[in-house]
What we know:
The protein has 9 helices and 2 strands, in the order H-H-H-E-E-H-H-H-H-H-H. By secondary structure, it is mainly alpha-helical. It has one domain. The two termini are 15 Å apart. Mean pLDDT is 83; it is low at 232-256.
Amino acid sequence: MRERKRWVTVVLYAMAMAWVESAVAFYLRTMMAQMDPYHPYPVHLAKGIGHAELVREAATMVMLLTVGWLAAKNWRSRVAYMFIAFGVWDIFYYIFLKVISGWPHSIFNWDLLFLIPLPWWGPVLAPCCIATLMILGGTLVTQFSRAGVRLWPGGLTWIISFGGAAVALYVFMADTIRVAPQGGEAARNVLPNSFNWPLFLAALVLMATPVLEIARNVWKRRLVLWQNPEGAGRNGPVGVSITRAGRGSINRGEQS
Length: 256
């Protein structure tokens, strides 16, 4: 299967998962008469539902990781497809929930984002920003990686990105972390009233470093081929060797 078809297949799968999840959220919120999750002790944490939600969230992650694993043959592309699946699922969950229920009313509406290991809270826009980065990075890796071409970011870039992810997680869980020593009941009843946008945006910039490095490598590769299509890659800035056979591999769209 060509990479474009793989990409479309993973995206369609993630969109279908997003519809299922948004429908489940709609059913739960309708039954509990609580369409807006911004309430103390929201429906996700109601007695009997909370444990099922924890397992469902874990199962959702397994499904997204599995489709990424099955979509490719090498670990880099598998990770990239996992990112694509996660990002598409996250964004379309809110799109479909808006279509089904009319909520969210704004991209700045608060949502209970996740329950593991503590409840995460944040405006709808925040996780969608992260999801967009995941889709961009995953798409660049899967659609522009070719035999002999290195697009994957270096170790330092990933360390910076993981640091940004840790900061973002702290922003999402800051309020529940603050009350966690008081017990689970306090964490379930916490209701944030402000979001630390400056710190989150700083974290987002850090998380964007792998995407920027991948985009730079793609641009350099294309620039080299455009300036010197016969032999540019031999000592070019992307550090790859592009012979006549190599260009044939690029045209055939083979993955490394």
